[in-house]
Design goal:
Layout lengths: L1 H6 L5 H20 L6 E3 L6 H7 L4 H7 L13 E3 H14 L5 H9 L8 H6 L4 H10 L8 E7 L5 E8 L8 H18 L8 E3 L8 H4 L7 E2 L5 E6 H4 L8 H14 L7 H13 L6 H7 L4 H10 L4 H18 L5 H7 L5 H12 L3 H6 L5 H4 L3
Parallel strand pairs: 5-6
Antiparallel strand pairs: 1-2, 3-4, 4-7, 5-7
């Protein structure tokens, strides 16, 4: 009996090899967490159920299909998968035949309130610019996988606020991006006392509706097919003081945030993925260029990426994969242009890559975008 019992415990060399391999894969996955995984405060879906009900939909069913527990939306300080939220908004827009669902939701949500504890600190900052600089530096309170950057335009008379989602393998994120920029516009209206919102808006994706539909949500011009997602302001807008601010509330809120949400250094793979996605459309996505932007020697960059379980080539391939899925779902972009946007000199390279990524040709994907693995997760 004892021998039989031990026979279930003793493993063959092959079993041990497989066990070591599995553990090494688990360790590699843990090191690579960053752009692949992330959460967002449940307030991000504030009034989602009401917006769906207004369109005749079943919000609980939509949430369950996106693997989100409906009860999470009513729990304070709860979090949910950001990736699942992106899929939820895309599915909702498609199934309810409402291409502007993300913007409609943003108009209900009101803007700054979805940011949780950040709302108090921002409402009591000295200026609109300081409010968003504080937000940019503490956005992990809302989600560790989104990023905003405030940058000056060349004219210096305008600034823009770039918005990025630091997740890979989510090429279709139009609703989430439109919701985020709609929320930003509404939040700035709140902070400025209604004096101004976004002066101009840029989206990387194709236009989904007549421009007049977007002008119902934004005061300024809205543009598409741009190199990044952003809202623009006059530089003087950012210097506008916030009325009725309370310095004591600011100190209390910022102290609470520092204690409860300590800033964590971003994974290098996350930073490289974000920069690579930005530079790909500019034709500058090279190992040397990204290393220079990170103030690193190229060999140092490759070594540190290897320590996180990946490589520059793998990250660039993932960025290209997401971009290809996005471009091919927008059927009017010629395949030669898609290849060029991905940095390929020939369309045949695009075809081989699509076969490797999706087991389908570019034309097959164009005719049936659900062939991409990301789209399969929405079914």
């Amino acid at each position: 009996m004892q021998i039989n019992h031990l026979s279930h415990i003793v493993r063959t060399p092959g079993d041990i090899d497989r066990s070591i391999w599995r553990e090494s894969m688990k360790a590699k996955a843990r090191r690579r967490q960053g752009p692949s995984d992330g959460v967002v405060r449940s307030e991000a879906l504030r009034l989602y159920s009401e917006a769906v009900a207004a369109l005749g939909g079943d919000s609980d069913e939509m949430l369950r299909l996106a693997r989100i527990d409906p009860s999470a939306l009513s729990k304070s300080n709860s979090v949910l998968s950001y990736r699942s939220m992106i899929h939820l908004l895309e599915r909702t827009a498609a199934e309810l035949n409402c291409p502007d669902f993300g913007l409609r939701l943003a108009s209900r949500q009101g803007g700054i309130v979805v940011l949780g504890p950040l709302e108090v600190a921002m409402r009591n900052s000295s200026t609109v610019g300081e409010a968003y600089r504080y937000c940019a530096g503490h956005l992990q309170v809302y989600s560790p996988v989104v990023q905003i950057q405030i940058e000056a335009c060349r004219s210096k008379e305008r600034h823009f606020m770039r918005f990025e989602i630091l997740l890979d393998r989510v090429p279709h994120q139009r609703q989430a991006v439109e919701n985020a920029l709609g929320l930003t516009h509404n939040a700035v209206l709140t902070l400025s006392g209604g004096r101004f919102g976004a002066r101009e808006v840029w989206f990387t994706h194709k236009q989904l509706l007549p421009i007049a539909s977007y002008q119902q949500f934004f005061d300024g011009p809205v543009h598409f097919d741009k190199p990044f997602n952003a809202v623009f302001f006059n530089s003087s807008d950012l210097a506008q003081e916030i009325s009725d601010r309370n310095p004591q509330l600011y100190e209390m809120a910022s102290s609470y945030i520092d204690a409860q949400f300590p800033s964590a250094s971003q994974h290098l793979v996350t930073r490289v993925h974000a920069i690579a996605a930005r530079l790909l459309v500019l034709g500058l996505c090279s190992h040397a260029e990204i290393a220079a932007r990170l103030s690193m020697h190229p060999r140092t960059l490759q070594r540190r990426l290897r320590e996180e379980g990946t490589s520059f080539e793998e990250i660039k391939d993932n960025v290209r994969r997401d971009a290809a899925a996005r471009y091919l779902s927008e059927g009017d972009i010629p395949l030669t242009r898609v290849a060029a946007l991905l940095g390929y000199s020939e369309s045949s390279v695009l075809t081989r890559s699509c076969k490797r990524w999706f087991d389908s040709s570019p034309r097959e994907i164009r005719e049936a975008p659900e062939l991409t693995s990301e789209a399969r997760t929405l079914r």
